[in-house]
Structures are given as structure tokens and as C-alpha cells.
Amino acid sequence: MVAALTGFPATTIKRLVVKIGSALLVDANGAIRSEWLTGIVADIAARREAGQQIILVSSGAIALGARRLGLPKGGRGSLDDAQAAAAVGQIALSQHWAALLHEQGLVAAQMLLTLDDLENRRRYLNAAATLERLLSLGVVPVINENDSVATTEIRFGDNDRLAARIGQAARADAVVLLSDVDGLYTANPHSDPAAHHIPEVKRIDAAILAMADRGSGSGMGSGGMASKIEAAQIACRAGAHLAIISGEPDRPLTAWAAGANGTVFLAQTGKRARQNWLAGRLSIKGSIHVDAGAEAALATGKSLLPAGVTQVVGSFARGDIVDIIGAEGRPIARGLAEYDFADAVRIAGKRRQEIADTLGTAQRPALIHRDHMVLL
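^ thats the sequence. predicted structure below, dont judge the formating
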């Protein structure tokens, strides 16, 4: 029964993350769309009844708070306005969710997170443990970015990627992004009538990335199609499907399960938990470029040795996350740097004895060890 309600390919989705954007929750005047919200809660209740565990990622706090405070530009005119609007709007938004879920016999829980909460390994594990316990108790977690304290350096910037990271932390089987479009098109369907819909994506390659459009149909949201594809990369690498579907129907999840358009990005093979976390990291401190020989060695499970490094970019300390860039200029792996930036520059292209001569010692032969690396 669970599989029949999903809309995904023939598989069982026991744990589902549903992301709802500002434009769906809040109208152009900054008021909550109560009737629509009642419909989506009915969808959630039906899926819970069928045995699915549901996590909600809900936008809307800034737009809602801006209306209540009378702030211009939907509360996004300045960081101070956005933070104040979020503080006022979040409490109202959580009250709506709690009340409507209660009417369906469901208990809501609120979690507010910043980027740093999921980038820091210890806090990531704490968040994952909290989600696991809430779901085991039959609770519906309602999650949003903590916009009242988040700044540029510690924010996701959009809830698409937050939803994907939550899916990763919660070990979800799938993520659904409710959008103002019914999936991925070859071009922006709002401006190009020749654009055609893509129902399924098996692999996110350069052609798929080229279809992304950063425009948001409503002007209220912060993420366009590009952020959704980035979210799909995170989710799929974590072994979860991700779907983009239209949130316009009164019962969008029911409509999609009944055959409405949507685009499903198919999950890749699941990774170990630490690799999963590394692959989803968004705060990348630098990059290490490698030659074709090093790229081939990494593909066979080898560590990254300095000898194959052609360039080091960024500013990072030992233990920071860096991307490994292949000979064709695209990221091929991600891992924890064993050396800081200055020493990495000094030993790039050098072999073990040369490293010892340069640094005075060769304590760590690998620039990034294979146990702290994930292929992308």
C-alpha cells in the first residue's frame, strides 16, 4: 500500500521528505493559504495511514512575518528585515502546522537548522538522532532554516538543498519538492513554449545541468530549478530518489500518485554514512586539481597522493572539506584535507622523499586518504 501511494518507480518508500515552498504556503499578500494547507495535511495523513513516515520541510516564515510587520519587499530588503520577519513568521507558521496536523490526529515537532548544523559532523549526527527518535514516536517533524539567526556564511539559501540534506540525515527513501512547475523541462516553460517535460533522470550530467534555470516563478522563493537539481545531486548520492512535482493542485501528492506530471531523479547506490555526509557537504573550502593518472587511481579506490596534484585552490586547514577536480575540470571526488593549504601548495606534484625534504618530515603520505574521501 505504501508503494502505491508514492508516485515513484516500483519501489517501497517508507520514509519521505516533503518540501513546500513559500509561494505555495503564502499568497501574494503574505497570508497563509489555509485551504491549500488543509489539503496537503490531508495528503500527509493519508500517507501516514498507509505506513509512510513523513518529514516536512516548510518555507514561508519570512513572507508571513513580513506581512505581519508591514516590511517592504516581502521582508527581503535587508538581512535585518529577513531575520526579524523570520522570527515573527516562524511562530505563526509552526502554529498552523501543529493545529492542522492535530486535527488529523498527528503530532508535530519543530526543528530549526542552519547550514552549520549539518556541516558540522557532531551536530549532523545529533540532528539525525533527533529525527530518528521523533519518527519512531510517530511524530511529523516540521523543519525550516533558522532564518532569524542565519547569515550568508551559515545558510542554505533555499530549502531545496535543506530538504535533500534532511533526507540524507534521516536516511529517507525519497524527497519530494513541491514546486511552481511540474518537473524539469528542456528549457524554462514559462518563457519557451517549445520546452518539453522530462519525466525521469537516471543520471545528472552536463546536459541536465544545462537545463537549470535560476528564476523563481513566484518571486517569493529563493531557489529556482538550479537549486532543485543541486538538491537532486545530494539526495541521489545519498541513495534517495528525488521528485519535482507541481504544488498547484489542492491535493498535490494525491494528484501526482494518480498520474500527474513530475520529474523523478533516480537514486544512486547508497554510500557509507561518512561518505554520505561528505558527498552532501555544501561548505567546500577549496579544491585540488589532479592529472589523469591520479584520477584513474582514485577511481580504483586509492588515496590522493601529492604526486598527482597539478594545482591547489582556496584557503583551507587540515580537516576541512575540499573538492578534487579531474583532468577535464569537473569535481570527481570530495574529502578531508590531510594538510593545510600552504603545505598542500608546497608539496603539490612531489613524491614522498621530496615531501620529506620540503616539509622536514613526511608524516602523512596522502593529501586526502581514501577513508576520508567520496567519489562524486
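The first strand starts at residue 15 and ends at 20.
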